[in-house]
Design goal:
Blueprint (H helix, E strand, L loop, with lengths): L2 E9 L4 E8 L3 E7 L1 H16 L2 H4 L4 H18 L5 H5 L17 E2 L2 E6 L4 E7 L6 E6 H18 L25
Parallel strand pairs: 3-4
Antiparallel strand pairs: 1-2, 2-3, 5-6, 6-7
Length: 181
């Protein structure tokens, strides 16, 4: 199955995010993400992003943060994020989509995340019981999903700060000398 599109939108009536995953052009999975779930999802996505070998090899936390920021910006340039105009433009009648997990969105209660290899991650979004969605994401898709989640949370006004760790600029707070290569 080929992942085609992921959308993350805020649904004010539910005070939840709805994630729409389109696979092979005709299969769609709908997932509810609560504020609490999004906090856990963000931590899982951060761990996946930080789990890349070139980031893990760095002993200095500032270097890890800087490389993560660079990798995030590079991945966002590679992934195709649609603009708000494209999302809201009339697209004509949509063909009926197969929804193997049901017509209503599943309420996600559990998140499992692990690196598959140096380039891919597995993200499982699961309800309390039963089947959920298992996404194998390349790094550009992982960072793209992070950006979509950030944008939806901003729209939700949940007062969550979903940010990548930022490298400290300037002198160290402890006053210790820094080693320059």
């Amino acid at each position: 199955m080929r992942l085609e599109k992921i959308r993350v939108d805020f649904e004010p009536e539910q005070d939840r995010l709805v994630m729409r995953i389109l696979v092979d052009g005709q299969t769609e999975v709908l997932l509810w993400l609560t504020r609490r779930c999004v906090k856990r999802l963000w931590l899982a996505m951060l761990q996946l992003a930080e789990g890349k070998p070139e980031i893990q090899r760095q002993a200095d936390p500032e270097a890890r943060s800087a490389i993560l920021q660079f990798a995030h910006e590079k991945a966002l340039r590679e992934v195709q994020l649609s603009t708000r105009e494209e999302q809201t433009a009339p697209q004509g009648p949509q063909p009926p989509r197969d929804r193997p997990l049901g017509e209503a969105p599943l309420l996600i209660m559990r998140i499992q995340a692990r690196r598959v290899d140096a380039e891919r991650s597995l993200l499982a979004l699961l309800p309390a019981e039963g089947q959920g969605a298992h996404l194998t994401l390349g790094d550009s898709l992982l960072h793209g999903l992070m950006r979509l989640t950030q944008a939806a949370v901003e729209k939700a006004e949940w007062d969550l700060r979903l940010e990548l760790p930022k490298p400290a600029l300037g002198a160290s707070e402890t006053g210790a000398s820094r080693v320059l290569n």
